[in-house]
């Protein structure tokens, strides 16, 4: 197994964990303020599509990064609008946005490129020292978010909004505005995560390319107990097993060749197992999912 557990596995783990950490940090921001955000999957998908489209139309991947980020922000703001202004159930809003993102990206892909499946190759964001620049951004964001959440007044406002919005209002905190800000920022990070998929990993877009990563990122938020460092560590855990299943494809273990389909299931099965061990011991923000009165 020496050809599996090597330095390349470490590089693969970091590459595959980067989009998970970006989306999961967005989930931490949103849920710390009290808004459940299962729309991370749709935000990632839109970020991936519009990131590719921006690069395709301009030939500049950084323009794609900007467009993908904006698309995520729009979905994030929409989720905030539906949950805070229209008072729609957070789960229902998230599901609706996921369906919208899947349908919209599939429709635009087929309409613009006149065929199903995937886009033509586009210019991607170049690597820096064997990793995408977004990987280094993840390190900065994780540390900055922890500092902001636990060492600054705005972090206190965010946590107060998610723990006890009524008490937060009595000291002058505008809970609704805090939630608009955090959920929109959550969309920005999830959009960046999608851009990573299309412009840093594959340099193209394929239908449904987020592949459930938004839900794994949401699981990392719970597994990491809504703490930026814990969430990043949980995403690394899931990314490691995703990288591992890729390295084990077609290899024999004890003389037995495990079907590739079982290897593909590995990250998702481990996500369920991990959550089963955490649920009941992880304490969510007290007002998570509650509408602002």
Tag the structure with descriptive keywords.
293 residues; ABC transporter involved in vitamin B12 uptake, BtuC; mainly alpha; single chain; 11 helices; 71% helix; two-stranded antiparallel sheet
Molecular structure report:
With 293 residues, the chain is an all-alpha fold. The protein has one domain (7-278): ABC transporter involved in vitamin B12 uptake, BtuC, CATH 1.10.3470.10. It is 71% helix and 1% strand. The chain has eleven helices and two strands, in the order ααααααααααββα. The protein has a two-stranded antiparallel ribbon. A hairpin with a 2-residue loop joins strand 1 and strand 2. The mean pLDDT is 89.
List the helices and strands and how they pair.
Layout: H1 7-32, H2 40-58, H3 61-85, H4 90-113, H5 133-151, H6 153-163, H7 165-170, H8 175-201, H9 213-223, H10 228-248, E1 252-253, E2 256-257, H11 260-278
Antiparallel strand pairs: 1-2
């Amino acid at each position: 197994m020496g050809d599996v557990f090597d330095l390349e596995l470490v590089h693969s783990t970091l590459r595959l964990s980067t989009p998970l950490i970006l989306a999961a940090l967005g989930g931490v921001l949103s849920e710390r303020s009290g808004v459940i955000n299962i729309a991370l999957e749709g935000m990632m998908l839109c970020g991936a599509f519009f990131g590719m489209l921006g690069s395709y139309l301009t030939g500049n991947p950084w323009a794609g990064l900007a467009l993908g980020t904006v698309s995520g922000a729009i979905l994030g703001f929409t989720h905030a609008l539906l949950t805070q202004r229209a008072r729609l159930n957070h789960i229902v809003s998230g599901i609706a946005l996921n369906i919208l993102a899947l349908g919209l990206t599939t429709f635009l892909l087929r309409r613009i490129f006149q065929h199903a499946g995937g886009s033509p190759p586009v210019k991607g964001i170049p690597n820096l020292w064997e990793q995408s620049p977004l990987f280094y951004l993840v390190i900065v964001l994780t540390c900055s978010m922890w500092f902001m959440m636990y060492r600054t007044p705005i972090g206190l406002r965010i946590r107060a909004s998610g723990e006890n919005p009524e008490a937060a209002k009595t000291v002058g905190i505008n809970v609704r505005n805090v939630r608009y800000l955090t959920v929109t920022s959550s969309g920005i990070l999830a959009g960046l995560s999608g851009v990573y998929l299309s412009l840093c990993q594959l340099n193209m877009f394929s239908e449904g390319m987020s592949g459930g990563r938004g839900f794994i990122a949401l699981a990392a938020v719970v597994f990491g107990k809504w703490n930026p460092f814990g969430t990043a560590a949980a995403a690394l855990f899931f990314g490691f097993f995703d990288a591992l299943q890729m390295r084990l494809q077609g290899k024999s273990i004890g003389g037995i060749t495990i079907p590739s389909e079982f290897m593909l299931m590995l990250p998702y099965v481990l996500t369920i197992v991990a959550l089963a061990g955490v649920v009941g011991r992880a304490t969510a923000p007290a007002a998570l999912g509650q509408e602002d009165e």
